[in-house]
Amino acid sequence: MSLVRLRGVSKAFGGVHALRSVSFDLEAGEVHALVGENGAGKSTLVRILTGAHAPDSGTVEIDARRVDRADPVTMRALGIAPIYQQPALFPDLTVAENLAIGHEPARAWRRIDWRRRRERAREMLSRVGADIDVDAPAVGLRMAEQQLVEIARALGADARVILMDEPTAALTDREADRLFALVRDLRSRGIGIVYISHRLEEVAALADRVSVLRDGELIATRPAAEIGRAELIRLMVGRDLHAIFPKRTVPIGNVVLETERIGCRAVGVRDVSLKVRAGEILGLAGLVGAGRTEFARVLFGIDPADQGVIRLGGSAVTVWSPAQAVRLGLAYLPEDRRRHGVIPEMSVAANATLASLRAIARHGFLDRLRERAVAARYLERLSIKARSIDAPVSELSGGNQQKVALARWLATGPRVLILDEPTQGVDVAAKAEIHAHIVDLAAEGLAILLISSELPEVLGMSDRMAVMRAGTVVGTFDRKDATQEAIVALALGTPQ
Question: CA 135 to CA 303: how far, in whole Å?
């Protein structure tokens, strides 16, 4: 008997069909992967399963019983537990307090057993192999740690159905391996798991069945063992995808950015010496916590350097703030798109010009015509899919939101572009598009620093690669000499 069954479910928003007559089921003790491009309907299907959206037509059944007028509270009570891609923690509460929400009985005038709360929080975290201070405020956690807290909270509810939406997007390989072991353990205990991921290698490793959505329609449901990566990609995008990493040779010019033993004690960056040339893509690899993002923040003046020298075009500069970094020709696309990349409530036009307001202002007032002209130019250049430049960014898919964030920094006319996880959480087709734009920018002479936790991305896109560990660079490779095994060995600090 199926734990969950959707029959002929459709859902539309303002005339746009997010789902069209989709039927989907999940068996006990099964990992059922759900794949498709951003905008294919995966998130809408998950929201229907959690009760956040009601279907316009079709039925939802739990344990063969039809559920009408579902809401999140009802669906949680029926054993449905979601784990979303973007953590939904209360930033000003501690880890223990976040984990207690929904798991402790609510009674008037009840005194909190803080000791027991902390013990339970540690028990929940230990189930996902997380070593996190339960008294730490959630606002200070890295994205990977936030993800683990979310996973622990969902598992603590003893759900029978777990919906995992990109659960490994910000995890290291070791953390992901622990999660995979946990998923297999849950499956062995009869729990059903809906697993959404753009990482098709995860689907092959974990899933029993795979369902493919495209443009709101169910294209196919197949046993995972019977479908290969190439076929999955073809089903997802409706065409063959030959070049996920469309790297091409472009002229390499003079050194644009050079750091000499740069460091910042406050964030643990030390003695980083690198050079990036015009037209060059320098990949920066390493485990989460190795210091890659921290180094990017130092370069951009968010956490100013307190040692070493930064040179731009051969001249030593001091970068004390992001505003100064922009004036010097630096641009930084951060890893957390929703928190630091875009402002979802603002329009595409406003987001695309937010970092270049001085250039589009006249006599201290914002020139709306210039704003719209700049936004329209990048809408076309980056192939951003939006109903108009006035649409709020929240309406866009993840890949298109990332392109808007990229447009914001390109509008400043930078010489150096720092990209931190530029394709995290976007689908295969959008990833290929973003990669193509990165290569085009390198061909225009930009010096690009590419930070990625996906080794195929670093290997496929970079002219040279540097590996960080414990806040410093521990080795570099030319493209022709780099291998996945050599990079991992350096990142882990283990001899080959």
Answer: 25
The one-character DSSP state at 394 is G
Around Cβ 229, how many Cβ atoms within 10 Å? 12
Cα gap 145→288, rounded to integer Å: 10
Classified as helix, coil or strand, 396 is coil
416 neighbors 256 (Cβ within 8 angstroms) = yes
CB 57 within 8 A of CB 32: no
Query: CATH homologous superfamily for 2-237?
Result: P-loop containing nucleotide triphosphate hydrolases (3.40.50.300)
For 453, the enclosing helix (H) or strand (E) is none
d(CA 344, CA 401): 9
Residue 435 half-sphere exposure toward CB, CA atoms < 13 A: 25
Q: 91-100 b/e with 16+ CB inside 10 Å = b?
A: eeebbbbbbb
Sign of CA dihedral 174, 175, 180, 182: positive
Instruction: Please say if the pLDDT value at position 495 is more than 70.
Output: no
CA separation (Å) from 199 to 35, 179, 286, 291, 336? 9, 14, 18, 24, 18
**pLDDT higher than 70, residue 105:** no
For residues 149-169, one letter each, b for 16 or more C-beta atoms within 10 angstroms of the residue's C-beta and e for the rest, the string is bbbbbbbbeebbbbbbbbbbb
**What pLDDT, on the 0 to 100 scale, is given for residue 241?**
44
79-88, 194-203, 256-265: lowest mean pLDDT where?
A: 79-88
Q: Distance between CA 352 and CA 357 in Å, rounded?
A: 10
Q: Extract the tokens encoding 43.
A: 């998130």
pLDDT of residue 339: 67
**In 10 A of CB 368, how many CB atoms?**
10
CA distances from 348 to 153, 227, 379, 416, 437 (A): 35, 38, 9, 23, 19
Does residue 351 or residue 339 have the better pLDDT? 351
Q: Cβ(210)–Cβ(198) under 8 Å?
A: no
| CATH topology classification for 255-492 | Rossmann fold (3.40.50)
* DSSP code string of 169-236: TT--HHHHHHHHHHHHHHHHTT-EEEEE-S-HHHHHHH-SEEEEEETTEEEEEEEGGG--HHHHHHHH
**Per-residue confidence (pLDDT) for residue 75, from 0 to 100:** 92
Q: Which of 5-19, 102-116, 183-197, 431-445 has the lowest mean pLDDT?
A: 102-116
Task: Count CA within 13 A, CB hemisphere, residue 433.
Answer: 20
Q: CB-based burial of residue 113 (10 Å sphere; 0-12 exposed, 13-18 middle, 19+ buried)?
A: exposed
Looking at the chain, the domain(s) classified CATH 3.40.50.300 span: 2-237, 255-492
341 DSSP 8-state letter: I
So what's the pLDDT on residue 282?
A: 97
